[in-house]
Amino acid sequence: MTTVSTPGPEDSPLPRFVVQKHWARTLHYDFRLEMEGRLVSWAVPKGPSRDPRIRRLAVRMPDHPLDYAVFEGTIPRGEYGAGTVMIWDTGTYEPLRPAGVSPEQWLDRGFLKFILSGTKLHGLWEMVRYRAGELSKESWLWVKLRDRFSRPGYDPESEPLSALSGKTVVEIRGEGPPPVVAFHERPLEVWSRPCAEDPFEESEEPGSLGTRLLH
Ligand code: MN
What we know:
This protein has 215 residues and is mainly β. It has 3 helices and 9 strands, in the order E-E-E-E-E-E-H-E-E-E-H-H. The chain has helices spanning 103-109, 169-174, 189-192; strands spanning 16-23, 27-35, 38-44, 55-65, 73-75, 83-95, 111-117, 122-131, 139-144.
């Protein structure tokens, strides 16, 4: 009988996660998990809550390329994702996936459990899909599970600085469109999608996806 060693966290680096705060037409947060070479993405109107009693709506968005995980700056008007993007939190996550279940199957099942190791977000979290449908109509709930990192009454607005640069949004915006903007012009399929696919850019029903926080 042969022993097959399963690669664990020691052997392979853990996948990344990023929470980007996005001052688009409507302020929202984008939560992205690295999975199979791309960033599986959700738009979270009210941002993450470390309060286990609070469930946050997370609307599934098109996958983004991996290198978007390090993007912080301003995307010009008229381009996909226009507005200022801050890397609000980033780090790695440990997927708590049942044995024998591939990342793809895990996502398809609509029930994700993972441990975040970021700058602001830590510990156990859960995501549950409660409405299936076309991508941007797929609704999930994102909730913190009770552990030593949960904080009743937590407000993500209480931590306003970038986890990447320590900058405020005003400082990031003040830099103007950064050189990395060229990166958005690459002929990647996801970038060529019309803005209308992002309900936070071109919302037809104002307020239909949670509270409009700004503007
Ligand atoms: Mn966004």
